[in-house]
């Protein structure tokens, strides 16, 4: 391979290895916490989980998405919004795929602000399938005031916005294997990472909660949100923190990329077409130039 080619690969590796946001930091098995050292977070790297939507032909598990929405609704929705998800999206094929009547009934349980009416006043009405899930707070200022000065983030894109850098070599491999489960892996690790004792030398600020998987420090303001038996599933799935975490992580991945299954299907069709097209071009070229001496 030429030097230019090697340089191109090296440049690609460096670009892919850069974190997606300023909050993401290079992972380390253990962070250094002694005075004068620079700590790297998360302290523990999230372990890759098995997801039905992984790989080139992966797709969402409808039952898991429905359970994940239940966890979001009963636990997460009290603080976090899903402003980019409409009730009608919950009925789409490839997603939670609730029935049409279920979506209508679900939407009607929420009140949304509409208007103005003929008198110029805003009013409250039951939500319709075309409405987006309402935020638990009127605005960011109200959310911050109710949560110690920091507004809880919206979860609409959290499944794609979070993820821990896996290093240069993994970044190259992930580019070709289309690994995209870093967000769900991180969310699952974070939700199951509470109830651990801080390592020696780790300082946990007052009012925060230690979690070695948190991407921005040793502790975060959000207390442990899940506990065994907190949500009762109608399909008999285990009522454990691990199960809740898996289900809501998958649901948040769907919320961030609701057309994932369709994208993979179209991508495979395009790849197949290009292979056939390349073969036809080769055969045509051989036919056209077969009578020309070289």
Write the layout of secondary structure elements.
Layout: H1 3-17, H2 62-74, H3 100-108, E1 111-114, E2 123-126, H4 140-145, H5 158-161, H6 168-177, H7 182-191, E3 209-210, E4 219-220, H8 241-256, H9 260-288
Antiparallel strand pairs: 1-2, 3-4
Helix pairs in contact: 1-6, 2-8, 7-8
Give a quick account of the main beta sheet: strands, pairing sense, barrel closure. Answer: 2 strands, antiparallel
Give the assembly state of these chains. single chain
SS strand fraction: under 5%
How are the strands ordered across the major sheet? 1-2
CATH topology of the domain at 38-63 and 155-273: Cytochrome Bc1 Complex, Chain D, domain 2
Query: What is the annotated CATH architecture of the domain at 38-63 and 155-273?
Result: Orthogonal Bundle
> Mean pLDDT, as a whole number?
86
Query: What class, by secondary structure content?
Result: mainly alpha
Please give a handful of descriptors for the protein shown:
4 strands; two-stranded antiparallel sheet; single chain; 294 residues; globular; Cytochrome Bc1 Complex, Chain D, domain 2; disordered N terminus; mainly alpha; 4% strand; 9 helices
């Amino acid at each position: 391979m030429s030097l230019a080619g090697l340089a191109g690969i090296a440049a690609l590796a460096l670009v892919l290895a850069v974190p997606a946001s300023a909050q993401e930091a290079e992972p380390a098995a253990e962070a250094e916490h002694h005075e004068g050292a620079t700590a790297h977070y998360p302290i523990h790297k999230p372990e890759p989980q098995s997801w039905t939507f992984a790989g080139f032909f992966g797709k969402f598990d409808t039952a898991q998405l429905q359970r994940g929405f239940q966890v979001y609704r009963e636990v997460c929705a009290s603080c976090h919004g899903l402003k980019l998800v409409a009730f009608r999206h919950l009925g789409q094929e490839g997603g939670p795929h609730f029935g049409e009547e279920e979506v209508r009934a679900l939407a009607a349980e929420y009140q949304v602000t509409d208007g103005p009416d003929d008198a110029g006043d805003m009013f409250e009405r039951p939500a319709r399938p075309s409405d987006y899930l309402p935020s638990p707070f009127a605005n960011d200022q109200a959310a911050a005031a109710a949560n110690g000065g920091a507004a809880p983030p919206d979860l609409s894109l959290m499944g794609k916005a979070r993820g821990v850098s896996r290093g240069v070599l993994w970044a190259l491999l992930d580019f070709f294997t289309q690994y995209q489960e870093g967000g769900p892996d991180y969310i699952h690790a974070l939700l199951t990472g509470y109830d651990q004792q801080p390592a020696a030398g780790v300082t946990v600020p007052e009012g925060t909660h230690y979690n070695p998987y948190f991407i921005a420090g040793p502790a975060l303001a959000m207390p442990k949100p899940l506990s065994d038996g907190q949500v009762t599933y109608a399909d008999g799935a285990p009522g454990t923190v691990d199960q809740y975490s898996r289900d809501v992580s998958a649901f948040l991945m769907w919320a961030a990329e609701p057309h994932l299954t369709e994208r993979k299907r179209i991508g495979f069709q395009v790849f197949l077409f290009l292979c056939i097209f390349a073969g036809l071009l080769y055969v045509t070229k051989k036919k056209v130039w077969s009578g020309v001496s070289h």
